[in-house]
TrEMBL record:
Superkingdom, natural source: Bacteria
InterPro entries: UCP037692
A Pfam cross-reference name: DUF5342
Stated name of the protein: YheE
């Protein structure tokens, strides 16, 4: 489960879509960018391939709830 999820706009003009995010998962901090088309670009460390699909789904749900709702 994702813990301590945080996000902020990538741009000073917050009406331009694009966000940076960070969270903890299994005691590891992950960071990345969430772009307007829903794609995610990870910073180091990268999640394992097994975890990535599940994490992307959770990030999409959190972004929908916090940004688009």
């Amino acid at each position: 489960m994702i813990q301590h999820f945080q996000f902020k706009s990538m741009f000073k003009n917050s009406s331009i879509p694009g966000w940076t995010f960070s969270f903890y998962y299994n005691q590891q901090k992950y960071t990345g960018d969430y772009l307007k088309d829903g794609s995610i670009h990870w910073e180091a460390p990268l999640p394992s391939q097994e975890e990535e699909g599940q994490l992307k789904k959770q990030i999409h749900e959190l972004m929908l709830f916090h940004v688009y709702d």
